[in-house]
Write a structure and sequence with these properties.
The complex is a heterodimer of chains A (about 600) and B (about 325). With about 600 residues, chain A is of the alpha+beta class. Chain A has 17 helices and 24 strands. In chain A, helix 15 packs antiparallel against helix 16. Chain B is about 75% helix and about 0% strand. In chain B, helix 5 packs across helix 8 and helix 7 packs across helix 8. Classes of the chains: A alpha+beta (about 600), B mainly alpha (about 325). Chains A and B meet through helix 1, helix 8 and helix 14 of A and helix 2, helix 3, helix 7, helix 12 and helix 13 of B.
């Protein structure tokens, strides 16, 4: 998942940060803070049943919570409570999810080309469908993920090796032949390549939440699926609806009301689902919304689209409201300044290393909110990801250009000399296009970085645009010849290192639209290592292989790595807030009221 | 007068055509983002992006897309469906319109009452303490950004995050049909915040016009005839000085009916302004077109109403 979130008021959020009466980030110090935050706070506790919880947010969910389309953190927070995917990360799960709709772990055949999943008996759809879920409902869910009407953003990346996908997407087949249901409770998937590990890993995504074909198919026709407006669920909650199944509890940009799913049987589930009702209060100004949460009752702030502005962050980390603040674990996102390796002199590895060495990454982090927003990375794979320890853990592989988070001018000069610039500075006349996200905190980071580029002699054409524009017109479009993208990052889809490194640094994934390999790194040895690692299904061996790839990518210095995100979270005093360690976001089914 | 109104209404249609065409061309030629790519998420196959482009009709020539859209608008009053959530644009706009109308018209009442009262007193009591204080206050009002003023008002008076818990806070808006009392109280602070700069501007404008008018010959004549000063100011002075205020008010109300983005955002009022802002962020052309058309409609209609009002206010104007 990209670092983009669907905050509809992103720029205003930024404005809020600026307009807040005081912003005192500069006071936050540097130092080593790479330990995982949130010890007791944020962990599951036994709570009392009942009450209404309000999730205060700035933006809205995507396409009415259609699990086939959901691909952003905000969607996932709600999907986790509405649906029963085949697998789900419990709040304490980090790298291995637990069977949810599935009855047990997925069985992978010795050749890595067949995956078999048994599903639980007695799980029912919410009204108006009301019937028991079968394996055919999961089959249809995965099939519809490939429909353009649904517009799923990851099915092609993780499930393209399922036999018959090409025939299905080209219109040559009505079903995907490689997905079969030998009996009512068994799902079998046959692959063209032994890539079972990633196929199974992606089963924790909402795209495997069962969808009743006989009910949903009519909504999946037309330009865009309208299934989200008639959503049925299998989890402890459902979106309030009427007897026809039409959603009545969702007003776009205003409010979503989740109520208990009468067909949910707690005996089949590990979720405690404490609260009776969850209201998502949308459209809040980030500063006002976070203050509402701190001063109010039974509220939590939606981290993905309404992170605490720096001024509030500072006051809650030190003041009397400290108990309402959870530092949050690492989210599984890295942020970096991508350097386009196809543009001279960034095609020169020594120039890239020089820029990394020169950059005061602590200053970049301070510009973004200080230590509370994350740690300074030593390599790409973030904490909490399989392969992280194998890749060097917090200390990292030890590359000199990433050693000093405050920047090392002398080392940078040495690398520039090695690159053929005897003065230690770039002496060419070319001007480089640098495109940043215009949100205030992102822009501040970019402006801080800009000073370093200029110190190294680069002349920069600096442009600030909205996040969507940045991706879809500049950084994600190779022909735009954008040289520097300071606001890019990548968030894991699930805890498999392939999801972090393959879309972002595999030369085979450089595409002309929506390109996520922003540096356009195309190193044959790395590409080959990735293709090999994709077919390793033993998890330990897989982690080791991807850790080695992580070292190879980091050694290339495709950009300046400056943040491993944490998810600082705020809640009202009477809330037992629980974070899911897998994505550092709220786990609503585990939250209770005091 | 009837012919004039019909002629103007026909022009409204032409103008809306023009506005829709310009909006379409701006979006088509200089899109802020690729809607198909946005809809496809972050890791789609290039084939999926192309399939979505086809589904949304974005692969058709621009003129076909435009004609299809305009056919829908004029033949069926169909503004299309959002690229983002596939909900009818018309439905979303009509759902949000009451909030924007409530905000804009209420604020207009506030700024007109305050602006006219302060402007008149300042002009009549020129250089008095009231005049100096109110005009200084007006300068502050004009200079204060709505966004900052909104946050300040909430921090002071909102019943959830405020220092003095007097008024409902952000997100408390309820439609008038649901609870008129709550509707009224939830809008008091937003009305005053939105009206502050307008009231200040109108007060200064009226003051300066009224000072000019009060030195005219016909005012001297009215006084010479023995009319009371109150009657001279209210019946003869203000009636003449208020014409530019009516023009400005017409335009301002028209613009605000198209959405007051910042006020709606700070106070979490689900109106047209926020809808438009979100649509632009998401490159959601049908929604952008819909909100722009509605905004343009309100502005031209407000202009028409102003022109008609002139005939009643100023006896020299005849159609």
């Amino acid at each position: 998942m990209s670092s983009r979130t669907r905050s509809s008021l992103r720029s205003l959020a930024a404005l809020a940060s600026v307009a807040s009466l005081s912003i005192g980030v500069a006071a936050c110090g540097g130092g080593n803070d790479n330990e995982t935050g949130g010890t007791a706070a944020g962990k599951p506790v036994s709570g009392k049943k009942g009450g209404t919880l309000t999730l205060v947010s700035s933006g809205d969910v995507d396409n009415k919570l259609d699990p086939g389309y959901s691909y952003y953190q905000f969607d996932f927070i709600l999907d986790n409570d509405l649906h029963r995917m085949l697998y789900r990360y419990k709040p304490t799960d980090t790298t291995k999810p637990s069977p949810d709709l599935a009855a047990g772990p997925a069985q992978i055949s010795p050749d890595g080309k067949t995956v078999t999943v048994k599903i639980k008996h007695g799980i029912k759809f919410s009204p108006p469908v009301n019937r028991e879920v079968t394996a055919a409902d999961v089959k249809y869910a995965i099939e519809r993920d490939f429909l353009p009407q649904v517009g799923n953003g990851y099915a092609g990346a993780y499930w393209n090796d399922i036999q018959g996908v090409k025939a299905f997407t080209s219109g040559g087949a009505k079903e995907i032949s490689g997905i079969t249901t030998p009996d009512k409770y068994t799902l079998q998937i046959k692959l063209t390549r032994p890539t079972a590990a990633v196929v199974v890993g992606a089963m924790a995504l909402p795209g495997t939440a069962p969808v009743p074909k006989e009910y949903a198919q009519k909504y999946d026709k037309g330009k865009i699926s309208t299934y989200g407006q008639h959503l049925v669920t299998t989890g402890p909650y459902m979106v309030q609806n009427n007897s026809k199944g039409e959603i009545t509890g969702y007003q776009p940009g205003k409010r979503i009301v989740l109520v208990r799913n009468p067909n949910w049987d707690p005996k089949t589930d590990f979720r405690p689902a404490y609260v009776d009702k969850i209201i998502v209060d949308e459209g809040n100004d980030p500063t006002v919304g976070n203050r509402k949460v701190l001063n109010g009752q039974s509220m939590i702030a939606n981290q993905p689209d309404m992170p605490p502005p720096p001024a509030i962050l500072k006051s809650v980390t030190t003041g009397s409201q400290k108990s309402q603040f959870i530092p949050g674990p690492f989210t599984g996102r890295f942020r970096y300044i991508a350097l386009n390796t196809t543009i001279k002199p960034f095609d020169n590895i020594n120039v890239r290393k020089a820029i990394s060495a020169a950059m005061d990454r602590n200053a970049l982090r301070l510009a973004f909110g200080g230590p509370a927003v994350g740690g300074i990375p030593t390599h790409f794979l973030p904490p909490g990801m399989a392969g992280f320890e194998e890749a060097g853990g917090m200390a990292g592989p030890g590359y000199d250009f990433l050693r000093n988070p405050n920047g090392d001018t002398q080392l940078a000069t040495e690398y520039m000399k090695k690159a053929g610039y005897p003065s230690g500075k770039y002496t060419g006349k070319q001007k480089f296009l640098m495109v940043t996200d215009s949100a205030a905190n992102q822009r501040k980071v970019a402006e801080t970085a800009l000073a370093t580029f200029q110190k190294l002699g680069f002349k920069i054409n600096f442009r600030a645009v909205t996040r969507d524009t940045m991706y879809s017109k500049f950084c994600g479009v190779p022909k735009s010849k954008t040289a520097i993208c300071p606001s890019v990052g990548w968030l894991k889809d699930f805890a498999d290192p392939q999801t972090m490194l393959d879309p972002t640094f595999n030369g085979k994934n450089i595409i002309q639209t929506n390109n996520s390999n922003w540096p356009q790194l195309n190193v044959p040895a790395i590409n080959a290592a990735m293709e090999k690692a994709k077919t390793i299904n033993d998890l330990a061996a897989r982690a080791k292989a991807w850790a080695e790839i992580d070292r190879m990518v980091t050694a290339q210095a495709p950009g300046v790595l400056w943040l491993w995100d944490k998810g600082p979270s705020l809640m009202s005093k009477n809330v037992n807030g629980v974070l899911n360690q897998a994505n550092a976001a709220w786990d609503l089914s585990y939250i209770s009221l005091k | 007068m009837t012919t004039y109104i019909i002629r103007r209404l026909l022009w409204v249609i032409v103008l809306l055509f023009f506005v829709s065409f310009i909006t379409f061309m701006i979006f088509y030629l200089f899109p802020s983002a690729d809607p198909a790519a946005l809809r496809a998420g972050r890791q789609p196959n290039p084939e999926l992006v192309e399939q979505i482009r086809h589904q949304l009709g974005l692969d058709k020539p621009w003129y076909v897309q435009y004609v299809d859209y305009m056919k829908g608008v004029f033949l069926h009053f169909d503004l299309g469906y959002s690229y983002q959530n596939n909900i009818s644009v018309k439905t979303q706009i009509f759902q949000r319109l009451p909030a924007t109308i409530s905000l804009a018209l209420g604020a207009a009442v506030v700024w007109l009452v305050i602006g006219i009262a302060v402007g008149t007193i300042s002009a009549v009591r020129r250089r008095s303490l009231f005049d100096r204080v109110s005009m200084t206050g007006a300068l502050v009002g004009i200079s204060a950004p709505v966004y900052w003023l909104g946050l300040l008002a909430l921090y002071l008076f909102a019943n959830d995050i405020g220092r003095f818990k007097i008024f409902p806070g952000s997100g408390s808006y309820v439609p008038i049909s649901q609870d008129p009392a709550k509707w009224f109280t939830s809008l008091i602070v937003p009305w005053f915040v939105l009206a502050a700069a307008f009231a200040a501007f109108y007060a200064r404008l009226l003051r300066s016009n009224l000072i000019d008018v009060m030195s005219e010959d016909y005012i001297r004549t009215a006084r010479a005839k023995g009319l009371s000063e109150r009657r001279v100011v209210l019946r003869h002075g203000i009636r003449s000085a208020i014409t530019p205020i009516v023009t400005a008010a017409g335009l301002d109300i028209g613009i605000l009916l198209g959405g007051a983005i910042l006020t709606e955002s700070v106070f979490n009022i689900p109106g047209i302004g926020r809808l438009a802002f979100d649509s632009i962020q998401n490159s959601d052309l049908p929604m952008i077109q819909g909100t722009v058309l509605f905004g343009a409609f309100f502005i031209v209609m407000a202009n028409l109403i102003v022109d008609i009002l002139y005939a009643f206010i100023d006896p020299r104007v005849r159609y």
